[in-house]
């Protein structure tokens, strides 16, 4: 599939009194995007944290109990999203969740295919809050997802701010980078957005950013959230001059849609006005310790 529609979420966390309410919310969101012709749906980082509400207010508001509660619901939530991916024949990257991997907690984004396949990508580099407050660790290595809509890679929030990770995915054949994010303030949103746009520039590819939005003071760690959905490309032939293919409205919940043309990615990599992806290697040998010159 060389052309497809992506739906990327500005996603508000809710409070659920029962499991049926969660299932109904997922069905509404997936059904709406599929009804608009989206073949790929991206939910944000820590979108699964709303599941802590099912354990009650005391647990949801606790620093570590909320994480473990959510981890306990992941298998059930994966089953819901897998069934929806099959029913609506779409590829879904679900909201990431804390997951126990051995004796460590990782931040894991699940991937669901229209045929029922389930895979995942763990976040690589933790923010200070994740390290110091939640004690979440970097998980399993980067993956390339061969899907019905092409080769996808996931750079979870902070990961998008590190160019070598993005480059590894580009060199492995990824044409679309997915950036699910969770940022408290506008500064955090822009750090991730700038990272996502830079990775699209360097890799001459498309990057898709999803965000948590709104206030949920009852759930520890995701009390305040700022962002919107957006889709970026390289500001070059076949793409907008700004590099912004589509963007939502700040802090307004809902889907942002964009048409992705993989042939445009291949064309700009082969014969763009600049060739960032091809010329990346020319940095080698020029990235050593700089000399010092005194100019008085």
Automatic annotation (TrEMBL):
Single GO MF descriptor: hydrolase activity
Domain CN hydrolase: 4-262
Record Gene3D superfamilies: Carbon-nitrogen hydrolase (3.60.110.10)
EC assignment: 3.5.1.100
Top EC class of this enzyme: hydrolase
PANTHER family on file: HYDROLASE YHCX (PTHR23088:SF50), NITRILASE-RELATED (PTHR23088)
Stated name of the protein: (R)-stereoselective amidase
Originating organism: Thalassovita mediterranea
